[in-house]
Write a structure and sequence with these properties.
The complex is a heterodimer. By secondary structure, chain A is an all-beta fold. Chain A is built from no helices and 11 strands. Chain A is globular and about 40 Å long. By secondary structure, chain B is mostly beta strands. Chain B contains no helices and 11 strands. Classes of the chains: A mainly beta, B mainly beta.
Chain lengths: ~120, ~110
């Protein structure tokens, strides 16, 4: 399966600041997906990122709060803007690739654990 | 809106036992269903993928079944080992890349 690298792996941020999370995949993929896991909760899809077009956001998530870039087929960024303590979560990047190609099987990065003070 | 329930929420067993983890979902119009494990502080590891047209998938000591019409999936772990200790997540997919996750079953296998 593909190697999915996320940076930073963890960070502590101040309220009101913004942080950009990077996701790098070692193979070209059509779509990349960003998920959030709040403390004690399960994962929720934030948005789908296609190369060359704007991201598609799920209900409850907006571009102003979570802008996403997808400059090429191996890289994406998610920015968490104007952070509040409620944004403290693990943010995970996901792709369908490798043995999962064309099957819908998703693979996840290690996640970026953000703590907002 | 898809809702996913996993039972039990937590399970503690001695090594060697055969285990059954249950998952139910409310919307049977799924694309596929994946089982994952998540170790503390880590990302997700894909265990098994079942397409909507399939009834079961097997990988080593793991077997997952899917009854799409009744909205149920079961993960069977044979001969459990301490290394199996993790949170197990069930995630039906209602469209490409869109998974809805359950809260997970926290499994502890003690020697």
């Amino acid at each position: 399966s593909a190697v999915i690298s996320q940076k930073p792996s963890r960070d502590i941020c101040q309220r009101g600041t913004s942080l950009t999370i990077q996701c790098q995949v070692d193979s070209q993929v059509t779509m990349m997906f960003w998920y959030r896991q709040q403390p004690g909760q399960s994962l929720t899809l934030i948005a789908t990122a296609n190369q060359g077009s704007e991201a598609t956001y799920e209900s409850g998530f907006v571009i102003d709060k979570f802008p996403i870039s997808r400059p090429n087929l191996t890289f994406s960024t998610l920015t968490v803007s104007n952070m509040s303590p409620e944004d403290s979560s693990i943010y995970l990047c996901s792709v369908e690739t490798g043995r999962g190609a064309n099957t819908g099987e998703l693979f996840f990065g290690e996640g970026s654990r953000l703590t907002v003070l | 809106k898809q809702e996913v329930t996993q039972i039990p929420a937590a399970l503690s067993v001695p090594e060697g036992e055969n285990l059954v983890l249950n998952c139910s979902f409310t919307d049977s119009a799924i694309y596929n269903l994946q089982w994952f494990r998540q170790d503390p502080g880590k990302g997700l590891t894909s265990l098994l993928l079942i397409q909507s047209s399939q009834r079961e998938q097997t990988s080593g000591r793991l077997n997952a079944s899917l009854d799409k019409s009744s909205g149920r999936s079961t993960l069977y772990i044979a001969a459990s080992q301490p290394g199996d200790s993790a949170t197990y997540l069930c995630a039906p997919g209602t469209s490409y890349g869109k998974l809805t996750f359950g809260q997970g079953t926290i499994l502890t296998v003690h020697p």
